[in-house]
Amino acid sequence: TLMDKWILSKLNSLVKLVDEHLAKYEITESSRAMADFCDILSNWYIRRGRERYWGSEMTDDKAAAYVTLYTCLVTLAKISAPYTPFISEMIYQNLVPSFYANEPKSVHLCAFPTVDEKMIDADLERAMDGVTDIVVLGRAARNAGNLKNRQPLAEMVVVTARNLALSQAETEIILDELNVKKLTAADDAGKYISYKLKPQLKTLGPKYGKKLGAISQFLSTCNAEEVVAAVKVGGAYELPELEVTLLEEDLQILTESAKGYVAAADKGITVALDTALTEELIDEGVERELVSKIQNMRKEAGFEVTDRIEIYFTADGRVGKILRAGAFAKSVLAEKVVEGTAEGFTKDLSINGEKATLTLIR
């Protein structure tokens, strides 16, 4: 998949970078690069691949996910061996000697990995960096609007100074990560977010003390979007008439979202989320909350992840309607969903402010 190609590209870029840094004995730079890779491997690649690891059948896609992760872990153990010798050895022992009799018996007897240049796709890495930037801003916008991650939204708008040419796969990743139905590209951020600028006195005062009044006057009447774009992307905004150079640290940047949207902006990208909720979207959000609660109940009850269950419930309102429909049953491995009571693992729940009592039986 696109995610497999991307993480293998990042892995080989990492091997190349660490090798180059070690040749110059630049220990800190190379160890930071490995830490960054561990972060994206865990919090992006593995987290996004959870559904691929799930399931009883060994499909081609599941095999690809396992082989890709295996390759990343073994390679990471080898390049990190000089830094963390004991943890690297533990990872290697768990993954290699028991399965490959002809391989070295210790990670410290292995050759240092060599980069496979054919696996590096710089364009894909840059594109995925753009995807992660958009997702981070989308999450920030959700937080600003107090919109729960499990509540689906109808649309998001992305405005960027860069050429936004997302592939279908990249777009699907963004929509899935942010739980949004549709992504629209636009070219005018001013429709979705506005800025107000104030001087940051603790930095501007020592530099331009006597000019503070003129700077404040300029900031109150200027094209704030133009100034923000310059300090965020280019790093500075020049005021030749005042002989002043404004940096991001010199400004208090206040943002305000347009009506009906919550927005966030950084690195020349603006992401705006449509906050309008239809009845269907609200129902879907409640269903997702319900599934999460049931999965937690399964864990608390000590069920195995593959155990089939029956669900008995008492509930009114929207939650009761969704439970009676039972459309979510397959996702929690429920053989049936029945209104009523029974003997089993029982819990009183509050789902988006509505009460429900659920009983799970293995």
Please characterize this protein's 3D structure.
This protein is flat. The protein has a four-stranded mixed β-sheet with strand order 2-1-8-7, with helices on one face. The mean pLDDT is 91. The chain has helices at residues 2-23, 27-48, 50-53, 60-80, 85-95, 122-144, 168-178, 201-208, 212-221, 224-234, 279-301, 317-325, and strands spanning 153-160, 180-186, 193-199, 237-239, 244-246, 251-257, 261-266, 269-274, 309-315, 334-339, 345-351, 354-361. The protein is built from twelve helices and twelve strands. It is α+β, with helices and mostly antiparallel strands. β9, α12 (317-325) and β10 (334-339) form a beta-alpha-beta unit.
Record the SSE blueprint.
Elements: H1 2-23, H2 27-48, H3 50-53, H4 60-80, H5 85-95, H6 122-144, E1 153-160, H7 168-178, E2 180-186, E3 193-199, H8 201-208, H9 212-221, H10 224-234, E4 237-239, E5 244-246, E6 251-257, E7 261-266, E8 269-274, H11 279-301, E9 309-315, H12 317-325, E10 334-339, E11 345-351, E12 354-361
Parallel strand pairs: 1-2, 9-10
Antiparallel strand pairs: 1-8, 3-6, 4-5, 7-8, 9-12, 11-12
